[in-house]
Amino acid sequence: MEMKITEPADSGLVFFGKMSASISHEIKNVLAIINENAGLTEDLIALAEKGRPLDLGRIKALASKVRQQVQRGDQIVKTMNLFAHSADNKKGEILPADFLALMVSLSRRLASIKGFEIDVRCDKGIPEITTIPFFLENLLWLLIEYAMQVGEGERRLILCAGELDGKLQIGIKLSPFRGSPNASVFPGERERRLAEALDADLIVDPEKGEVSVLLKIK
């Protein structure tokens, strides 16, 4: 029997596990590429020890590839640290632009598996807001999952942030959608509980191709 997840804390555990697994896969891919290039370097050294001239061009190319993967791995770890620390404090201030950048980093791999690209569009001058960052990350991910279920045509999601009636609207824009087998139960109890914990409203507008959350700025 499948466990029914409704409470924000329980939902958070599932969300944290999903994102941690995705991040670990990315790190594993980085290590695999570094290991492959280390093996190729060892092969070139072994050939040189047998008298074959050392191909410095290939050595430099392999070193460059390793350096690129180290930089990629460093960025993945920075994302992981930001994500992990977002669960430290119940409330905190976020800049919408930085928040969306983090969500893209967290979501891009899982979205690409389903054939979706993710971009960001954030209005300028939006002030910091006080919220529960981890709950908002969880809720936005649930909106992203829903958008990927109902998205039609162009498989591209745009994470957006802007002001609407004195509040912060943050969510996803996609092509107009007609819904899915799950559309009638969205938002479900899980999404509603998270929105309630954030003192926020949920917006689902198929004609505009928009799913978003509306938060108080102050």
Task: Explain how this protein is built.
The protein has helices at 8-49, 56-86, 96-113, 133-150, 189-197; strands at residues 92-94, 117-122, 129-131, 156-164, 167-173, 201-205, 210-216. The protein folds into two domains: 8-78; 92-216, 2-Layer Sandwich (Heat Shock Protein 90), CATH 3.30.565. Helix 1 crosses helix 3 (96-113). The strands form two sheets. A five-stranded mixed β-sheet has the order 2-4-5-7-6. It has a two-stranded antiparallel sheet with strand order 1-3. The chain is elongated, with a radius of gyration of 21 Å. 54% of the residues lie in helices and 18% in strands. The protein is built from five helices and seven strands; from the N terminus they run H-H-E-H-E-E-H-E-E-H-E-E.
